[in-house]
Design brief:
The complex is a heterodimer. Chain A is mainly alpha-helical. Chain A contains 24 helices and no strands. In chain B, helix 3 (92-102) packs parallel to helix 5 (136-148). The chains are: A mainly alpha, B alpha/beta. At the A-B interface, helix 1, helix 19 and helix 20 of A face helix 2, strand 6 and helix 3 of B.
Chain lengths: 542, 235
């Protein structure tokens, strides 16, 4: 029967990603399991590590900083989402674009920015009092900068689709604005508020770079503890046991958040188009949003740029010029400038891998009648934290037949694993939007399955493909959690170099770190803003 | 010119049997219509002939050759879709040329054949238009031109009049009659409209719940319906 051939193509589409995930995702996870539980000695060591008194503090800090961050992010983002959903104003698209940039901004850059903002000479020094620049204030500020974007997007899109006539009806019945918000609007926003809050909690709970660089003494979460146990104490069983705890917590959180997002069915009955603000109150709200939004989104990048050009006794290019030299006593074995080349090569390779594997997964998902539950399996790497991925790859490919740890490929593969879920998530809806009858029509006209993909699917998903490639590139470029485990010390990426420079005192190191952060930031922003541009015509078209 | 034979063809989706042991012969150069209410399985039958839907049993023969192992893109069965299925990213001309390109024809041949067909359907002046700029009737005619262009061995039409109003229907019936005559096509035509089927087809088969209950010319069906259901359906 003629369906044998498509079946063959289908299984090939799945075989490559399955092999990839089995080797670079499952095998490292199994290695982690075995490291913790594989032998009595390991088990004893892991148990001793897990039950050490400090672990209680680590778990407590992981949870409470995530709760505090989530609460603060929601407090900042929800009023902003209301303004975005209901009003039209100048600067709107600028704020939206900047918030996308914030979302993909590398963690080490944000850490550098917050260090500069809250540091001894920073403009926001007063916020944290006489305290050092490291501490919970810095962590919260960094998380607010990162996570506000995602809540803004999710909540404002949903809010814009709520039927405004219900509020109008409540007003005619004599309800005050506050009363209307509490008893008419808020209950309907509940699903999206819960869903977005659970995502923010997930991201802040697994936060690594921010806590590593900004956390003060005793401010250590699970991720940082894993890294410390593995890279500094060489206590692999304890690191592995912590990773298992981490995976269990994250999978539980993912289940809760996908449950909550599943209920997101907006009303869509009468979508109110955003209008210009009318009343004084509305003007104040919108004005406050513009000023606050621009301050939050622009101040951190601005500080990085300022510090990059700050030579200590004036302004200039000294920090950038020093990147090409490897001076005595540096924490890096090579001139920091080399990290730029390394990062570019790694990120390009990772992008290609992520597009191929993530694309094949998306094609496989859309060409078979796969159930959504199974679909979720492919997104699992999103749930397993980058630190655990990096750690797993580090120990899985350490020795034996698969001793590839020192190979060039490990870094881009680790980065691709982090980026693949984003690629798949972007491509699945795009492929679903291609009507099956177009493919059938092309086949009837003599196009082979490959020709159908090249001539029909590819042109129709082109924009989504470019967008997801750009995101994969930006994510790989800034990836830190996995890379720090896998990167060879003589081939650091920009984020790894920034981390090493920032965690070493000395004005020269700090200056170089800021210069590298400015370069990384410019590269990330350029890629993301280019694709935002790319998306505009399509939106206008609709 | 090719002939089509269906022998005990069945098509099923999971547990639902859409086509049950259908036997049908379309002689070369003739037009056969399959007439039936919506959901009777007639679209599934066409999709099986084109190779888009696998058959669960039976044989589909074109020129006496079993098509079971021939994939859609090698069958040379043209299918005109109910929803047109015009490629949105290609112009009208490129849509019509698609099958010719797949057949590896030269640019010159492609240009000539495309122009000829667009003239046939009266859309020579819309060559560079995009599908979304066309009216429903125009899209229908582009879909027809695209289906005819590579001169497939068999042409399958799935409710081609679907969304058209009365006047456009009459125009399209005339256009189809002219096109089939000039192209000498073997045509399998699916419809739920009696007048349309009688106007275009040499023989008409009435389909009900996946089975063909009667085959004959329009007169035979009208004068000697096999049962009350056929008589009701045709009246």
């Amino acid at each position: 029967m003629d369906q044998h051939r498509p079946a063959l193509v289908r299984s090939a589409t799945f075989a490559i990603p399955i092999a990839f995930f089995a080797l670079f995702f499952l095998y490292p996870l199994v290695t982690i399991l075995l490291t913790a539980l594989g032998s009595t000695a390991n088990l004893k060591q892991a148990w001793a590590g897990l039950t050490a008194p400090v672990m209680g503090d680590v778990l407590w800090f992981s949870v409470w900083q995530a709760v505090a961050s989530t609460a603060l992010v929601m407090l900042v983002a929800v009023p902003g989402a209301w303004v975005l959903a209901r009003f039209r104003f100048p600067g709107r698209s600028l704020i939206e674009a900047l918030s996308v940039v914030a979302f993909v901004m590398p963690t080490v850059v944000v850490a550098a920015a917050v260090t500069a903002l809250l540091g001894p000479t920073g403009p926001l020094r007063w916020l944290v009092g006489s305290h050092a620049d490291h501490g919970i204030g810095a962590i919260l500020l960094a998380h607010v900068y990162f996570e506000t974007a995602i809540v803004l997007r999710m909540v404002s899109t949903y809010w814009a689709q709520l039927d405004t006539r219900l509020e109008q009806a409540a007003a005619t019945l004599g309800a005050s604005p506050w009363r209307i918000f509490r008893s008419v609007t808020l209950p309907r926003l509940r699903p999206v508020l819960l869903a977005s809050a659970s995502i923010v909690f997930l991201f802040t709970f697994t936060s690594f770079g921010i806590i590593l660089l900004l956390g003060g003494p005793g401010q250590v979460n699970l991720e940082v503890e894993i890294q410390q146990q593995v890279l500094f104490l060489f206590n692999l069983p304890t690191g592995a046991a912590l990773s298992i705890v981490q995976i269990i917590v994250v999978v539980l959180l993912l289940l809760v958040s996908s449950r909550l997002s599943g209920r997101l069915t907006p009303e869509r009955s009468q979508v109110a188009t955003p209008r210009r603000p009318h009343t004084t109150r509305q003007h104040i709200a919108v004005g406050g949003f513009i000023v606050g939004g621009l301050a939050l989104l622009l101040l951190p990048p601005l500080m990085v740029v300022l510090q990059a050009f700050n030579t200590g006794d004036g302004w200039g290019w000294t920090n950038f010029q020093s990147l090409s030299t490897s001076h005595q006593g540096s924490v890096l074995f090579v001139p920091p400038g080399q990290a730029i080349g390394n990062s570019l090569i790694y990120a390009c390779t990772a992008t290609v891998i992520a597009i191929v594997i993530g694309g094949l997964v998306a094609v496989g998902i859309t060409r078979t009648s796969i159930r959504p539950a199974v679909e979720g399996v492919w997104l699992l790497p999103l749930g397993v934290s980058a630190v655990t991925l990096g750690f797993g790859i580090l120990i899985a490919f350490d020795s034996g037949a698969l001793a590839w740890r020192g190979s060039f490929w490990m870094v881009p593969i680790a980065q691709a694993l982090v980026a693949i879920p984003f690629v798949t998530r972007a491509l699945v809806p795009a492929l679903r939007a291609v009507s099956p009858s177009l493919r059938a029509a092309a086949a009837c006209l003599g196009a082979s399955p490959l020709q159908v993909f090249r001539l029909i699917d590819l042109p129709l998903i082109w924009r989504a493909l470019v967008m997801s490639a750009a995101f994969a590139f930006a994510i790989s470029l800034g990836e830190f959690g996995a890379t720090v485990f896998v990167a060879n010390s003589d081939r650091p990426t920009i984020p790894v170099a920034i981390y090493r420079l920032l965690s070493t005192p000395g004005t020269a190191n700090q200056g170089q770190a800021m210069a590298l952060a400015a370069i990384l930031m410019a590269m990330t922003a350029a890629v993301v803003l280019l694709t935002e541009r790319f998306r505009l015509p399509e939106q206008r078209h609709v | 010119m090719s002939d089509v034979q269906l022998r005990d063809v069945s098509v099923a989706y999971d547990d639902v049997v859409a086509v049950r042991e259908v036997n049908l012969i379309v002689p070369a150069g003739q037009v056969a219509a399959v007439l039936g209410p919506s959901g009777c399985g007639k679209s599934s039958l066409l999709r099986a002939v084109a190779g888009i839907e696998p058959t669960t049993s039976g044989q589909i023969l074109i020129n006496g050759e079993d098509q079971a192992r021939v994939p859609t893109h090698r069958r040379s069965v043209g299918l005109m879709f109910q929803d047109h299925a015009l490629f949105p990213h290609l112009s009208v001309g490129e849509n019509v040329a698609f099958g010719l390109r797949m057949a590896g024809q030269s640019d010159e041949q492609i240009a000539q054949r495309t122009r000829q067909l667009l003239e046939l359907v009266g859309l020579a002046d819309r060559t560079d238009a995009r599908p979304h700029e066309l009216s429903g009737g125009q899209a229908q005619r582009v879909a027809l031109a695209r289906t005819l262009a590579p001169s497939p061995r068999v042409i399958c039409l799935d409710e081609p009049m679907g969304s058209l109003d009365r006047v456009l229907r009459r125009d399209l019936i005339e256009l189809l009659q002219a096109a089939f005559a000039t192209e000498h096509s073997t045509v399998l035509y699916v419809s739920h409209d009696r007048d349309e089927a009688f106007a275009l087809a040499h023989t008409v088969s009435v389909m009900r719940d996946g089975r063909i209950v009667q085959t004959g010319t329009g007169d035979e069906l009208m004068n000697h319906p096999v049962d009350e259901w056929v008589s009701d359906f045709l009246s």
